[in-house]
Structures are given as structure tokens and as C-alpha cells.
Automatic annotation (TrEMBL), chains A, B:
Keywords: Repressor, Stress response, Transcription, Transcription regulation. GO terms for molecular function: DNA binding. It comes from the Bacteria. This is Heat-inducible transcription repressor HrcA. InterPro entries: GAF-like_dom_sf, HrcA, HrcA_C, WH-like_DNA-bd_sf, WH_DNA-bd_sf, WHTH_transcript_rep_HrcA_IDD. Residues 104-322 form the Heat-inducible transcription repressor HrcA C-terminal domain. Belongs to the HrcA family. PANTHER family: HEAT-INDUCIBLE TRANSCRIPTION REPRESSOR HRCA. One of its GO terms (biological process) is negative regulation of DNA-templated transcription. SUPFAM superfamilies: GAF domain-like, Winged helix' DNA-binding domain. The keyword Transport does not apply. It comes from Salinibacillus kushneri.
Amino acid sequence: MLTERQLLILQVIIDDFIHSAQPIGSRAISKRNDVKYSSATIRNEMADLEELGFLEKTHSSSGRVPSEQGYRFYVDHLMSPFSLSRQDIKRIQAMFGEQLMEFERVVNKSAQILSDLTNYTSIILGPEVFETELKQLQILPLNTHSAVAILVTNTGHVEHRSFTIPVELDPSEIEKTVNILNEKLQGVPIYKLNQKIESEVVTLLKKHTNNFRKTYDYIQAALFSEQPTKLYVSGRTNIMNQPEFKNIDKVRDLFSAIEKEREIAPLLRSQDHGVNVVIGHENEIEAMKDCSLITASYTLGEEHMGTIALLGPTRMDYSKVVSLLNVLSGQMSKTFRAWYQNY
Amino acid sequence: MLTERQLLILQVIIDDFIHSAQPIGSRAISKRNDVKYSSATIRNEMADLEELGFLEKTHSSSGRVPSEQGYRFYVDHLMSPFSLSRQDIKRIQAMFGEQLMEFERVVNKSAQILSDLTNYTSIILGPEVFETELKQLQILPLNTHSAVAILVTNTGHVEHRSFTIPVELDPSEIEKTVNILNEKLQGVPIYKLNQKIESEVVTLLKKHTNNFRKTYDYIQAALFSEQPTKLYVSGRTNIMNQPEFKNIDKVRDLFSAIEKEREIAPLLRSQDHGVNVVIGHENEIEAMKDCSLITASYTLGEEHMGTIALLGPTRMDYSKVVSLLNVLSGQMSKTFRAWYQNY
DNA sequence: GTTAGCACTCCGTGTTATCGAGTGCTAATT
DNA sequence: AATTAGCACTCGATAACACGGAGTGCTAAC
């Protein structure tokens, strides 16, 4: 168990280091008003804290730097709550005050605000709305050989895809099929669509349409194939302002990792709901080993919709970021709920 | 006017430098099989070429490096045509062979291919389809106080936006208005919509609906407000592999510039159609002063749809990039045309 | 338990020397 | 007159070295 004094010193070191990015020496600490011990005492305590694994040296005669374990302890026990500046709060409110009305735009703007206010890189996943229900299916012919398929959910989410109509298919058959699907599938949750079709609609389709299989397969491909959840990244360049990323190879590796949406999306999705802090090597992705990722999830009613996250060096301003994510995820959830109160 | 020998030397220097990124010395040139002059002769010629502004030295006793004027001359007069490798061609064909059928996806994939095959950063603008005609307007109520508006064009382009219905508006009025608009506006080019409404539809609406202004204003905001053309960027990290971008500040400035879509989009849009090369300081944007930007446009039928571009250091493989852009923009145009033959 | 004092360590910086690639110029060669 | 060999010179890159400063660990004194 750490003593009061050790806690104080650890906190001071981490707070200082987060802002200065320089190893902290014993003299600098003992000079502070809130610390009334001599540098020698501090030195002894620092040696102990190092032995316990909370601090590290960059070389044998350097000041101390927090270890990952140190950050972990700080985040779990030491961090003092951060109050956002009046300005920042205004900025957030202003954004949600706009008559945006569009998931995409809210998410996009949120990403921008996050990266602007923190100077880190923001990543937002979503919104994904599994339990969303089908509102309308539509196939709109554009000319003799192409059409656009549109799917609308009860949350106002729209998916669409253009496709060519194979010559062997009869447009009127397609129309008939879509009509039946549309009628039978209203209100069915998206993730149950395929199942519902197979169990209830297929027999009906067989009865009312010729060449059922071909037509249906085609519509299936056009409408029901999964689209990957979108990832919104903002403030990529912020990371380059951090002194720990002066080295271009590091930056390249990190950027490459971020561009691999197939890997980042599941990572964000797998985080606990609520605010979540992943420090350094706790992170699975190699290139993020000296980054921290802080996530929070936003919801629609009770249902989880997506994740907002900030990516920065392990020397991150955890307390600011955590409270900012808290505020923003709350605002997003509140906004979405307001739009779909009776959802 | 340059002599044959000067042309040869200039070409050799630029070709070499494009691949090595190292200043080229007289000895290295004279050793080549296709050059049969001594290093002293080459030195003399190089001094002349420098005086003429085609070459530069990095310091007083260094080898030569092409100047921007040198690159310009190379691009305009010296560049030998490049044949893409069988592999590269296959890759392109494979992509266009897929049953993609979606502007967005084609554009996205094209951006990826461009950056993959060149190791530069690709930027694609579009597609913007001004002369596109309205196919269908629709407003779909989601619940008592929100709805989604969908606009489809004859090219299969879909725009949509969710919005809340103000209490003072009558949903049935909205429906009536949309019905009228839909009926009267089919086939009207998007960019003429507002004009057409004012000149022909307004009177009709006034007759058939109450509270016309408010309802119409609302629909106008929901459906007809301009959405900025999308920008697709791929291979951002490629630029960091270039030795001229080892310096992180340069990279940051360049990245920041690329993120400013409001500035990049007009830049791409303003280029001449066909392939276009902008070298170094010819570029308007400060952060791109030591980059080159090569653009080409793609079309739907006769109509310009958008621009594909590659961004790299001034020491770019111009001949490869130019022919690649040529091939790809052609393929895109061909594909789009095939989809909408009777457009 | 705390602190003053001191020897020691290591980074960062500036200096100097050296090496090599490349140039410009002059004089010799073709 | 054009080309080339030869040579002195320039500059960047690299390595070796000394030195000052910030910081530590340890011992002994308070």
C-alpha cells in the first residue's frame, strides 16, 4: 500500500509530466508549494515508487517518468476530476443546438469537436443500429437495365445501392417481389430480415412469382448484403504535435493502423460501455503500444449504437479526456433519444 | 534551344533522380552505357543546364538535382511513355470487372488502386452530377415528429436527410406538397430545381395547400440544400515513405492541407480536363510547394463528373503516374457510361 | 525520519579532424 | 574547336573528444 506522501508525489509527477513531457527531477518537485519535503526525501520516495513499478528512468541519472502501471494507477485512483472550460462547453452546446438532424452529421461533428478540444486524434464508430426495424424497401428502375434499391429503417437510416438488371430477369417480377417483401417485412428488425424471409415469406413468393429464386437472389444481393460500419476519424495531424511522435516511422505505423478499419472497428466495438481507458501495451494493436485509447459508448434509448474514442500518447491528459468523452457521449445519446422518443 | 546532348543529360539526370532521390554527379552519368562523354564534358554541360535554370545544386560541391523548371520541361518534352506492368493492368481490370455498381464504391476502390500502384497519395473528387435529373422525391414519416427525405436522380445517386417535423406543420400538407413536387419535377436537372419550382410549381402549390410558405421552406431545407462534394483520399501514409518527407513538420502541414476539403475540392475542380501536371510552386497551396499534383478528369458521357489526382513529391514518377491516371480515368468514364447508356 | 553534501552518471552540445564525393578550372589532347 | 585528364578546392557527413549541467544514490549529519 502506498503512503499519503507517495501518492502525492506520484500524482505530482504524473500531472507535471502530462503537461511538460519532460522527465521530472526531485528538485523540481520539492520546489512546489504543495510539497514541503526536501529533494533528498523526494529522491528516496521516487526510488521506492520506481521499485514498485510506478515510475521509470529514461537513463541512469535522469528524472522520473510514469510507467504504464503508473498511468494505470493514476487513472484508477489518483486522477482529479476535470471541469471543462466554459468555452468548451459552449462549443459543444452550440453544436447540438444546430438543427442538424442526421446521425452522420452529428457523429462527424462530434469527431471534429473531440479532436479540436483535446489536440488528440478522435475515432468514432457507428452508428450501428442492429435492432433497428425496417421501414421501407424500394426498388426504383432508372432505365431499362439498371435500378436503385433503397432501404429505410425506423431510425431514418438509409442504405442504397445501384445495380444492373440481368436480361434474364423480368422487371415486373422484381416489382412484385419487392412489393411482397415490403408488405411482409415492415417493422422487422434488420438483423432478423433474412431469417424472417426464409421462414415466412419464401412460400408466399413462390406462389405469386415465377422464376422466384433468381429474382430473389438478385434482390438479396442488392439490398441485404451487409455494409461495414463507418469509422469517422478527425484530427489525424494532432498526433504529430506530440513530442513522442517526432519520429516519422512511428507516425506512419500508427496511421497505417488507423487506416485498417477492419481492425479498428472491432477494437472499438469490444470495449466496455461507459468510459474505458486502454493504456500502452494493454492495447492489442502493435502500432498503438505507446498510445492510449479512451473510449465511451453512445446509445439510442437502451440500445448501444456506437463508440467514440480518443487516441493519444500514453502521456495523455486523461482527466480532461475522460470527462469530455463523458459529456459528449451523454449529449449524443440524449440527442438521439430526443429524435426517436417513441422508438 | 537545348542541344541533343543537353537533352540527353537532362533526361538522364531526371530519370535517375526520380528513382534514387540522390543528387546526380557527373561521373555517374558518364559511366552509363547510353552516355559516351567523359565526366568533364558532362560537368560542363551540367553547369550550362544549371545556368539555364533546369538544374540545381544542393550545395556548392554537390551533384545536380532537377529544378522545378527542369521537371516542367521534362513533363512537357522529355518524358518517355510508360507501359504499366501486366500485373497492374490485371489489378485494374479485376476491379472494374466486379459487379460493383455504385459510384461511391468505384471511386473508393479507384482511390485505393491509385495509391497502391504508385505509392503516392491519391485524392478523388466527386462524382458530382450537375446535369443529373430528378427521378424521385420522397418524404417518409418515421413517427409523429420526424421523417426522412430521400431524393433519387436518374444516375442512381441517392441523397437523404432526416429531420424533425415542427409542430406547426401538418403532415398531410407536407405529403401533398411532396406529391406535387414529385409529379412536376421528374426529369428536371438538379441544378435547375429551385428555379423550376419558383417559376412553375409555386403557384400550383399555393392553390392546393394551406400554409404553403412554411411547409415549402421546410422541405426546401430538408431536400434541396447543397451537400458538399465528397473527397476520397487514400494512401495518406505513402507520402511518409518518401525521403523528402522525413521531416514531420512538413508532413503535418501537408496533411492539414489535405484535410481542408473546402480548399482542395475547388483546386481539383479547377484543373483542365484531361491529364494535368502541377509542379511545386505552381501549386497555390503553401504546404504543397514541394509536391506535385497530377490530375485527370472522369466523365459520364460528355459531362464532366469529377477529378482523380495523385499527390507526391516533385520528384515523382511522372510518366508512370500520367499513364496510370489516363488508364484509370478512361476506365471510370467507360464504366459509368455503360451503366447509363441511355442517359 | 529528514536533509545536506558529495561523488558519479549520462545526455546534449560544441569543437575539431578526417574522409569522400563532387565541382570548376586549366592545360593537354584529339 | 571540342573533348578530356588532372588537380585544387568545397562541403557534408561522421567520428572522437571534452565539458557543462541536470539529476541520481548514498552516507553522514541533523
